[in-house]
Specification:
The chain is mostly beta strands. Helices cover 3% and strands 53% of the residues. The chain is built from one helix and ten strands.
């Protein structure tokens, strides 16, 4: 979960870079920017993998790559776009339930970072990223 949720308004696009000192798993894609997964609230697009943190060297990137994991979010569309006092999962599921969009767990490669973008088709509030990683054994 994030320290603070990330709001994305309908029609907006937000890019993300996830870094971990361990190996973050992803899959080879078809075309950077191609649609990977979608639902009624958002679309997830292919990005790239990074083998060096914030490098400007093109040989430190692998493209296209597909994020593997899940993205937790809430919908902001029941009334005033907030799960207000008195609204519950049963009377306002659009605002009061956490949704998840999944990318397939099948991963064929990995690096220390991945970049991708999300386009919101409805107002959403991202609450978490869960991703597949691999810890490389040493010694």
């Amino acid at each position: 979960a994030f320290d603070r949720n990330i709001f994305i308004t309908a029609g907006a696009t937000q890019s993300f870079y996830i870094f971990t000192p361990n190996k973050l798993m992803y899959a080879s894609g078809t075309t950077e920017g191609a649609l990977v997964s979608s639902d009624s609230a958002m679309e997830l697009y292919e990005g790239l993998g990074m083998i060096s943190k914030f490098s400007s060297n093109p040989s430190d990137t692998y493209s296209p790559r597909v994020f593997r994991g899940s993205i937790g979010y809430d919908l902001n569309s029941c009334g005033n776009n907030v799960c207000d006092i008195g609204e519950t999962l049963s009377n306002c599921p659009e605002d009061c339930s956490e949704k998840v969009i999944e990318a397939s767990p099948t991963a064929s490669a990995g690096a220390i970072g991945t970049m991708f973008h999300i386009e919101a088709t409805r107002d959403i509030e991202l609450s978490s990223f869960d991703f597949y990683s691999a810890i490389v054994a040493t010694g």
